[in-house]
Each structure stands twice: as structure tokens, then as C-alpha cells.
Design goal:
mainly alpha, about 0% strand, Bromodomain-like, 5 helices, globular
Length: about 170
């Protein structure tokens, strides 16, 4: 059972990193500069992925899922704030993707993360010792993707804001 839980955590990390990489593609190739709320949503996704990485490199624990939930709620509140700021606007910020703005898709992503964690907590038994487990070869994929995305996001934020406030 632990193997399936680790695989699902790895899939969550990979999915979130592709979402963040997609936002970086929009920033650099479509020249849509992110606002501070967008940067906070990216930070929340990176935080979720970092907490899920803890489940891969040690036994999955409720503490790790609690960290994921805190980051998802933070990101969800930021996305809701973003939606509320643009709800009455005649032209929403950025080009829509399949009819919805990127910050609306971010809100749906955070809701899906909360639902996934709820399902993980229901399905998987949490009576494990909190010692490190042996890490297999495929565990390096989410770690490498997370590190690459985080470093690219740091560069993108520096490119957007420099050493000043955004």
C-alpha cells in the first residue's frame, strides 16, 4: 500500500510541476508577466510539491498531508482573491485557456489537491514508523523536476521583479 501512496504523491508532484512550467511558458513565450498573486499561487504549488516529496522520501505521515493542505488552502485563497479582483472586469487578466483564466484553473487545481489528500487520508493506513525508507530510482524524477521548476521559478521571479518589490 505504501508503494501506491508514494506513486500517487509522485504523480501529484509531476502534475503540479507541469502546471508551474506551463505558467512559465506563458510568461516567457507569450510575454504575459505574472502579477504578485500569480507568483504566490506558484509558490503554493511548489510548497505542495515539497510537502508531497516528504511522503516519498520517508513514510507518508499526517504531518506531511497537513502541510500539503495548508499550502493548498493558502493557494486556493490567493486564487479566490485573484478571481474576485477580476470578476467584474470587462477584460480578465491574461488570455483564457479553454475559456477560463489561469488563476481560475489554479483554484481548481488547489481544490483537486485538497480532494486528493482527503482520499489519501481515507484510503491509506497511517500507522507507520517515521523512519527513512529505501529510495528507488524512479523517486529521483519528482525531485529533479521539483528542483528544476523551483530554480526556474526563482529566475522568473527575479526576471519579473528584480531585487525590488513586485
Amino acid at each position: 500500500m505504501i508503494l501506491w501512496e508514494k506513486i500517487l504523491n509522485a504523480l501529484m508532484i509531476i502534475t503540479l510541476m507541469f502546471i508551474v512550467l506551463g505558467s512559465l511558458v506563458v510568461q516567457f513565450f507569450y510575454h504575459e508577466e505574472p502579477c504578485p498573486l500569480c507568483l504566490l499561487q506558484r509558490l503554493a504549488m511548489l510548497s505542495i510539491a515539497s510537502a508531497a516529496l516528504l511522503n516519498i522520501y520517508s513514510f507518508p505521515r499526517k504531518l506531511h498531508y497537513g502541510l500539503i493542505l495548508m499550502a493548498a488552502f493558502f493557494g486556493g485563497f490567493v486564487a479566490l482573491r485573484h478571481i474576485a479582483l477580476n470578476i467584474c472586469s470587462s477584460s480578465p487578466f491574461g488570455n483564457p485557456l479553454w475559456g477560463l483564466s489561469l488563476y481560475t484553473w489554479a483554484f481548481f487545481t488547489f481544490v483537486c489537491v485538497v480532494l486528493a489528500v482527503a482520499i489519501f487520508l481515507i484510503l491509506f493506513d497511517k500507522n507507520h514508523r517515521s523512519t527513512l525508507m529505501q529510495v528507488s530510482t524512479w523517486h529521483w524524477v519528482p525531485l529533479a523536476l521539483l528542483l528544476f521548476t523551483a530554480l526556474l521559478n526563482i529566475y522568473a521571479t527575479w526576471h519579473r521583479c528584480g531585487f525590488n518589490n513586485c
